[in-house]
Backbone:
């Protein structure tokens, strides 16, 4: 009984295998998939951020249109920042230095 099990270290593989029908979950999955396609990271920050936005939206009982408009604006600000050279999340990594890689992993 039950479904199949998908094991992967890539969040994009896991998200692509999900079958979601609720609109809010479709929005969440699509947001993270778009982020993964653009940045190629794990998408964990984006998933947490989107969940926080959705929780806030639900607690405010806000109409859908203003929420979508505000969310699109926040999204464009986030993409601009993450794509910029001044993004604090970007760390130059020298893959030839195991010492540097270990310190990055520990942080």
Residues:
């Amino acid at each position: 009984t039950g479904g199949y099990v998908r094991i992967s270290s890539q969040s994009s593989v896991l998200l692509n295998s999900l079958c979601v029908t609720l609109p809010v979950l479709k929005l969440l999955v699509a947001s993270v998939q778009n982020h993964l396609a653009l940045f190629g990271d794990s998408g964990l920050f984006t998933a947490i951020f989107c969940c926080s936005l959705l929780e806030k939206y639900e607690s405010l009982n806000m109409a859908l249109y203003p929420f979508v408009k505000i969310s699109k604006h926040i999204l464009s600000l986030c993409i601009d920042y993450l794509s910029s050279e001044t993004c604090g999340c970007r760390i130059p990594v020298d893959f030839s230095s195991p010492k540097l890689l270990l310190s990055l992993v520990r942080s």
